[in-house]
Amino acid sequence: MNNKFLPLVVVLAILLAGLYWVFGLPMVGNPEISTSPEAIARGEYIYNAGGCAACHQVEDAEGPIGGYVIEVENPFPNTFYTPNITPDDETGIGGWTGRDFILAMKHGRSPEGGFYWPSFPYRTYQNMTDEDVLDLAAYLMAQPAIASEVPDHVLPAWQFDFLMAGWNILADFMEGEPPAISEDAQVQRGAYLARALGHCGECHTPRNALGMMILPQEFAGSEIVSKPINPEGLSSWTAFDFVGLLQLGMTASFDFVGGEMAEVIEHTSMLSEEDQEAYAAFFIHEDD
Ligand code: HEC
Ligand code: HEC
Question: Which of 181, 238, 168, 177 minimizes the C-alpha distance to 210?
């Protein structure tokens, strides 16, 4: 090769590598989705722990047929319709593979390589283990396929999904790390439930101007709920109070939570007592 072109080739190679890094689909393999009753049962539990129904299965729908409306001002008005995630071939996720589930839940990418909007809390679900994602897949694929068309999102014309490629990379750098927690197994389990499944931070953690969670200020309050639920905010709560909240929706001051939090309680109340106690161990620091 003529040496004169070498710098150009190097620049092109770097550019292509950069584009691939930004737009390429992560290599996630294509693990099998189990059809065993055990995996399906574990998946149902994850489905509840992840609060999927709050957005995908609404108003007595027979299954997660979507159609729930999410309005966001960012600062332009966006209207999202949650998709049908029953295994219907035409209108749902029929034919999805293990790879498709891991790409969607943990990377915010569609099977065709498109980018999901973060109104789908994949920035939280990315903390799930692959095993849990695959159990969830086993459960969803075992549900009856329900044909139900969902309207397209209504977004400003310039708001292309590929913008999320850059946003995701920026978010990796800008979200930061949540506060460190104890190595205690129960606290760790509670952290996994809250940070990977229950997506508590999606509503309770403040966001920066680009709409990314500010993880070092985890649970310090947001535009949705100003009251902090970090150790300071919950300093008067006992673990017993917190388990009561997850089971009944009652706060330490004997109020019942309403609105979106009431929907959250619908799912936390279905968790095992062991997991509710793990949540409490993570959120409540009674000795300090
Ligand atoms: C806060 C609301 C919300 C919650 C909670 C939520 N989702 Fe979604 N989900 C969405 C939205 C909105 C989209 C569409 C995103 C887009 O089109 O860019 C979506 C997209 C999806 C998709 C892609 C479907 C397709 O046809 O491409 C899957 C799969 C999915 N969600 C599964 C789940 C599972 C499983 C859970 C629970 C662990 C869950 N979601 C929880 C809002 C939510
Ligand atoms: C979809 C948004 C949303 C999600 C997700 C969410 N919350 Fe909330 N939460 C709220 C809202 C809104 C309130 C205020 C409700 C009210 O005052 O009636 C609230 C209130 C609370 C309170 C009561 C604070 C007080 O002192 O009154 C606690 C504690 C709490 N949430 C914990 C959690 C935990 C734990 C999770 C995760 C399992 C969670 N929330 C997930 C929206 C959310």
Answer: 168
